[in-house]
Design a protein that fits this description.
Radius of gyration: 22 Å
Strand order of the largest sheet: 7-6-1-3-2-8
Helix content: 10-25%
Shape: elongated
CATH architecture of the largest domain: 2-Layer Sandwich
CATH topology of the largest domain: Peptide Methionine Sulfoxide Reductase, Chain A
Number of strands: 17
Structural class: alpha+beta
Largest sheet: 6 strands, mixed
């Protein structure tokens, strides 16, 4: 099968799983149907399509405005904080007046999904809000956050006065000067404009429909990436004081052992997010271009989400155009098993992890040199460990692969 055939097969597979993904994956599918806003923004209060009422600050309260990708998730991080009275999901940063969710989602309004926070500075400082904000975003990615891509998902701090601007710039400088990261922060720090509240059904979505909220958040890889970036300091739903998500419970042990014993199906259901469980245990396929690692260009290794056994390296990763992570070869062949698969009516070669027996994806013979192979893998079956985290997570033996030889 050539690459073009592989892409066509990918499209066919994506169509085949659309029904399953409708209840598990992207946020757009989560709000499709009765909760989907009209382009004009018209709607009744009964169906939740009318814009929410923006609460006014009380005497002594201040306002903070942040953008950190999906506003459902940002709202959930700030709302439980002592000293925060109200958090409203909405839009700002663009030119379109009174935009609807659908208009902003198109990426043509200039607005970013944002939250407006009403807080009592006597109980919680703006600097503390900034700290929570940084630890709930990926500040090194422009015009995207996690699985959501586009200017409407950019991260930004919208300061309302000189004091907020000074605090935001100081916090950014401190993070960059910490030596923890080797990248520059791309989060915007800009003057605040008019804030427009989003439709009522978006407000407190994590409370209104926690199952779909968790499915979106887990499928988007938000908590996994936050943990990679911030470690024990990572924010997230649980860090804000709310109930921990299933993804937060999947804290893997350091490294991995050949003595690994696969957990029971009951335990796996508890430990894995729904998408990872369906992919690894029931050979499901995640949607192309809407998964965590298809366009990940960071240096590091990919391990089995269940066992932690090393599977692939970023050194062998390439852009296949299919929308799934693709590799020319495994990192360690002893951790890979293959089987014949005829589920789609023709023979494919399924790829599974040797020790966890997780379904990973398939391998095709239309890849680039030097192997001519394309290991087409589901992000949901993988956990990424950056080069900087290899030692800390027990995979230090692979660090040498990424070290450039010294010039004589």
């Amino acid at each position: 099968m050539n690459l073009r055939s592989g892409i066509l097969a990918a499209v066919a597979a994506a169509i085949a799983i659309a029904i399953v993904w409708g209840t598990m994956g992207s946020r757009s599918s989560t709000v499709t149907g009765s909760a989907s806003p009209a382009k004009t923004g018209a709607g009744s209060q009964a169906d939740g399509k009318a814009p929410a009422v923006l609460p006014a600050p009380m005497a002594g309260e201040d306002i903070a405005i942040f953008a950190g990708g999906c506003f459902w998730c940002v709202e959930a991080a700030f709302e439980p904080l002592p000293g925060v009275r109200a958090v409203t999901s909405g839009f700002t940063g663009g030119q379109e007046p009174n935009p609807t969710y659908e208009q902003v989602s198109s990426g043509r309004t200039g607005h970013a999904e944002s939250v407006e926070i009403l807080f009592d500075p006597k109980r919680i400082s703006y600097e503390k809000l900034l700290d929570v904000f940084w630890h709930n975003i990926d500040p090194f990615v422009a015009n995207a956050q996690f699985c959501d891509h586009g200017t409407q998902y950019r991260s930004a701090i919208f300061y309302r006065n000189d004091a907020q601007k000074t605090a935001a710039l100081a916090a950014k400088t401190a993070i960059e000067a910490s030596g923890r990261f080797d990248k520059k922060i791309v989060t915007e720090i800009v003057a605040a404009g008019k804030f427009y509240p989003a439709e009522e059904y978006h407000q407190d979505f994590y409370k209104k429909d926690p199952e779909r909220y968790d499915s979106y958040r887990m499928g988007c890889g938000r908590d996994r990436r936050l943990q990679e970036l911030w470690g024990a300091d990572a924010g997230g739903h649980a860090a804000a004081g709310a109930a921990p998500t299933a993804m937060a419970a999947t804290t893997l042990t350091r490294g991995w052992s050949m003595d690994f014993k696969k957990p029971s199906d009951v335990d796996l259901k508890k430990q894995l997010d729904p998408l990872a469980y369906d992919v690894t245990q029931h050979e499901a396929t995640e949607p192309p271009f809407r998964n965590e690692f298809w366009d990940n260009h960071r240096a590091g290794i990919y391990v089995d989400v269940v066992s932690g056994e090393p599977l692939f390296s970023s050194l062998d990763k390439f852009d296949s155009g299919t929308g799934w992570p693709s590799f020319t070869r495994p990192l360690d062949k002893s951790n890979i098993a293959t089987e014949s698969d005829r589920k789609l009516g023709y023979t494919r070669t399924e790829v599974r992890s040797k020790h966890a027996d997780s379904h990973l994806g398939h391998v095709f013979d239309d890849g680039p040199a030097p192997t001519g192979l394309r290991y087409c893998i589901n992000s949901a079956a993988l956990r990424f460990i950056s080069v900087e985290r290899l030692e800390a997570e027990g995979y230090g033996q692979y660090k040498a692969l990424f070290e450039k030889p010294q010039k004589p």
